[in-house]
Amino acid sequence: MGWSNFIIIPSLNIAIEVSRDLHDLEDYEEKAFDYLTSEEFDEGMDIENRTIRDLTVRDLASLYTTFDHTNSLKGMDLDKLLLFWLKNRGIDYEIKSEYEIEKEKLKEEGYTILWR
Description:
Elements: E1 4-9, E2 14-19, H1 27-36, H2 39-42, H3 57-72, H4 78-88, E3 94-97, H5 103-108, E4 112-114
Parallel strand pairs: 2-4
Antiparallel strand pairs: 1-2, 1-3
Helix pairs in contact: 1-3
């Protein structure tokens, strides 16, 4: 593997240089993003104006689940956030090592290459 990978997005004619450690989203990361961006999470809970004795088991479970999902994304780099955004919008992409692509050929095909 090279020093970097590229996210190739054919429908947008873009190649984005990313970390060489980026391969794809892990299943737990996808589930965490899905939960944190879902309507279920968006319902929210007015925790600021409630006392501890007012909390229900459901409230506590929601708080724990939210903490667990958020914690699993701690330290994630922006490259993975981009992958989630692409997947969430149904945009096809490929991740290739810098040795698997021909940068000049991409330029000839009209791709814009975004370097780190």
